[in-house]
From TrEMBL:
Keywords: Protease inhibitor, Thiol protease inhibitor. Residues 70-173 form the IrrE N-terminal-like domain. InterPro entries: Chagasin-like_sf, IrrE_HExxH, Prot_inh_I42_chagasin, Rad_response_metalloprotease. GO terms for molecular function: cysteine-type endopeptidase inhibitor activity. It comes from the Bacteria. Signal peptide: none annotated. Residues 229-310 form the Proteinase inhibitor I42 chagasin domain. This is IrrE N-terminal-like domain-containing protein.
């Protein structure tokens, strides 16, 4: 009985999230834009008051109508703030009574037990669907040319997927199960790998500036994309060098934009399944402090004045760390309080 009722509640919450996606035309905006769902922007658009405060014992809370409002802690990273806000939005949209939330239980959402708080289950299911819908997985998987069998069982790849969707690694793994993209055994295996380990292997000997910052791995597959990164993140750029042809990637514009190149080396691709064969030039960089910045690289023959067959890698970065207090960044922009 508990399972039947829980499944029903979960489906209702998922439908509510899908309805909101449709009404707000979110799919098109996201797939042609930043690749992640703007949770704070949606709350702002729905005119639900949202503030960030240094809550110590809760991730977030939601006040019921007629007061109606959402508060999210400043004590956690952006991806947890986003999921928390989506969870509280779920309480608001589903017309729940008020709630104070200390943790989220992704597992309980898919494996309800007796004694489960149905209101929390519904808000979690809403948040997961709102932030991590199946079409968003599909969008990124297609963009990167990943396949379920060869790539999505690899923790490094799922971590890169999570960054592009603006969600935690854990939430991203559970989404793979809830959308039936991977089976339970594969997801349990992914969850055994700790994010700290993945960051460590991706960044090699380099570390992001703080423990919640991330290490991105950007390649030709990201050409033309807009990514939202934290100013403290490390950006690793994989470039295929046309070895022996005299073509070289030119880093002048990258350095000119203020990127600090902390490592630059060539290597033979060790894992052709994941990253293609041939010679790979790998840069590890720290982005500059700026609200927006572009990665702009082109490969050319240095002695040619006007090369016409340059290969290019252009990626726009929106530098957006966690919310640090008061109104959300998007709300402040809308009110003209900060520059874009
Ligand atoms: Zn809740």
């Amino acid at each position: 009985m508990v399972r039947g009722r829980a499944a029903e509640i979960r489906l209702e919450a998922i439908s509510a999230a899908k309805r909101l996606h449709r009404e707000m035309k979110i799919r098109n905006t996201v797939t042609s834009g930043s690749g992640m769902i703007d949770v704070f922007g949606a709350i702002e658009q729905l005119e639900i008051p949202l503030v960030f405060k240094p809550l110590k014992t809760a991730l977030g809370l939601c006040l019921p109508k007629p007061l109606s409002g959402i508060m999210v802690t400043t004590e956690r990273g952006l991806y947890i703030q986003r999921f928390t806000a989506a969870h509280e939005l779920g309480h608001a949209v589903l017309g729940h009574s008020g709630s104070v939330d200390r943790e989220f239980n992704y597992r309980a959402m898919l494996e309800p037990a007796s004694g489960q708080d149905f209101q929390e289950l519904a808000a979690d299911a809403f948040a997961a669907e709102f932030m991590l819908p199946r079409w968003l997985y599909k969008h990124h998987v297609q963009q990167q040319g990943w396949t379920v069998q060869r790539h999505l069982q690899n923790p490094d790849i799922v971590y890169q997927l999570s960054l592009r969707m603006g969600a935690s690694y854990e939430a991203t793994c559970w989404g793979l199960l809830s959308h039936d993209i991977l089976n339970r055994t594969d997801v349990e295996l992914l969850l055994k790998t700790k994010v700290a380990q993945i960051k460590q292997s991706t960044g090699e000997t380099f570390r992001p500036a703080n423990s919640w910052a991330n290490t991105w791995r950007i390649s030709a597959k990201d050409h033309g994309a807009t990514l939202t990164v934290d100013p403290d993140d490390l950006i690793k750029i994989d470039l295929e060098e046309a070895a022996g042809s005299g073509y070289q990637w030119n880093l002048d514009k990258l350095r000119g934009a203020g990127f600090e190149v902390i490592s630059d080396r060539n290597q033979i691709a060790r894992d052709p399944v994941l990253y293609g064969g041939g010679v790979r030039r790998t840069l590890i960089t720290r982005p500059p402090e700026a609200p927006m910045v572009n990665i702009d690289l082109s490969e050319s023959q240095p002695w040619q004045a006007a090369p016409d067959n340059d290969r290019q890698l252009r990626v726009s970065l929106i530098m957006s760390g966690k919310e640090s207090g008061g109104l959300s960044r998007i709300a402040r922009i809308n009110r003209g309080a900060v520059e874009k």
